[in-house]
Amino acid sequence: MPAKSQVYIVNEDAASKDAIIADDTPKTPWKSIYFIGVLALCTAIQFSLYFSSMWPYLQLLDHTVTEEFYGYVVAVYSAGLIIAAPLIGLWSNRVKNIRTPVRFCICLQLSGNLLYFFAQLLPFGRKFAVMFARFFVGAACCHSGLLKAYAATASVAADRSRAMAIFTGGVAFGLTVGPGLQLIFVPLGFPGFKLFDILQINMYTTPPLAAMFLNSTALFIMTFLFEETYAGLATSTSHAVKDKEGDKEEKEQRRAAKEFKIPPFDKLALVLCHLGRFTQTFTFTALETIGTAYAMTIFAWTKKEAVTYVAISYSFMSVVEFLAYALFVFAKLDRWLRLRFHCLCGFAALIVLHLITFSWPFLPGELTTYTNKDMDRHLNQSAPEPVGCNLDRLSWCTYTKPVNVWVYNISFVLIVGVSYCVINITLETLFSKVLGPRRQAAHQGFLEMTEGAARFSGPVLISSLYTAFGPRAAWVAEIVVLSTAVSLWLIFYKRLVPLKMPTSSDDKESTDGSLDDEEEHLMAEKDPDVASVLGYVGLHRAGSVSLGKRVFDRASVRSSMRSNLRKSMRDVPIKE
After folding, report:
1. Measured CA angle at 401 (ends 397, 420), to 5 deg
2. What's the whole-model pTM score?
3. Which candidate, 406, 436, 382, 122, places its Cα nearest to that of 270?
4. Per-residue pLDDT tens digits for 108-139
5. Residue 500 has pLDDT above 70, yes or no
6. Domain 30-231+261-293+310-352+405-411+420-495: which topology?
7. Are strands 199-201 and 193-195 parallel, antiparallel or unpaired?
8. Rounded Cα distance, 236 and 519, in Å
9. Which of 82, 87, 545, 546 is most buried, judging by how many CB atoms fall within 10 Å of its CB?
């Protein structure tokens, strides 16, 4: 159960404080939040394991595979996410827990990784086996929305940013470790060695083995270690104990509790949050999809060099991102975080990245090129592996300018690392606060669906543009998407605020459940006994106070005091 804080007895005449009688204010269950971070870590590692190895693995399974087909392989991952995310979210809301749906998703993830590994044994249709494997894994990864929903609703409002930073920090650390593990597997090379004289173990087939181990670890944590408790949900019942004088007052309290309803959220603000998530995911997925193919073409790297250097680049990027998350969690930078402003700064930084790495016509140098004949000689083992841009497949090889390898990779590492940390923390926190203290699994599921839509459309669009027109067209498309999102956020900037919660029927609304401190100050100034009650209740925002034998929650105490004080304090301008 969440930790609890103190509740005080006050005499019927409110003249003195007698004793501490209970301890029932929910606090954030940090142990469970940290386990959520570990589960996010496991998911992110097994996701980032495939960043650099999937494209050359597909080429080895089927020599006819194209960049466009690879785009579809990446896209079906998101198709699975789009289909499964809302269904899993609704399932979680229906059963009122995340444990069962998350365990189901982990098992599905395990099945997808098994299929990816055993695709090498199939006599035909290997590339389609990989596609189906990614579909299953994508559908299973929708459980990250449930993990986010838990981090948002298990934490109290004051701890929300830190709780979300722990979740997203787990993701960032996973993205750091994943490419690093891929580097460990690189020395195995290809074809590697055989297991049981059937299974080929090499730099391309070890990632699914590592992913299956992580799936098993996550399943163990969710089954035996994780405790599902909530501190950030608004409830329809009071913290008050039963009234020993009779049922009349108890019924009055229940009736008052039922009158409390969470107000509807701002749908436009929620749509803008979805747009932000779509834009962020679209941009990153586009870079991820063409990353290895882009590096092999623009920087003239071999397959092995591309796997190695792209993995190193992602590792450094993830280290930067993880360090930024660590600062938020341990240095508590969320105290200075302005959600809307800093989220916009993150998007602006991504626009700057694309301008820096754009293949401008005035850049010096030409691309290294080769033809299909060069590739045929290599496949016949009569020539080394050709590198650069294939003139027979890509029409833009002759006029596209190469971007400096150091400019591209350093910009990618620093800008993506920092901006994605900032966007994740601010956007996740803002999204949960726009919804308010209600169950969010279904809404997080729809947010995952939006992310899946970006992961589906991004690879298909960007890989098609890249194949037909080159990196310039792909970069322009990403800049347009980013600029559109930034413009709409600026236009509706004032709508992107947390949900305003009424503290009681007589109270004015307060943002995300915060209280009207000026009114309390005026009331306390007039009566020292009121100051005593409000002082103790103010220390424990969700607590209850017992006036003699009657017990009220904090909102009831404030409402009752206002009614009495307004009759006797005509000279004090109480704010409505």
Report:
1. 110
2. 0.62
3. 436
4. 999 999 998 888 888 888 889 999 999 999 88
5. yes
6. Growth Hormone; Chain: A; (1.20.1250)
7. antiparallel
8. 25
9. 545
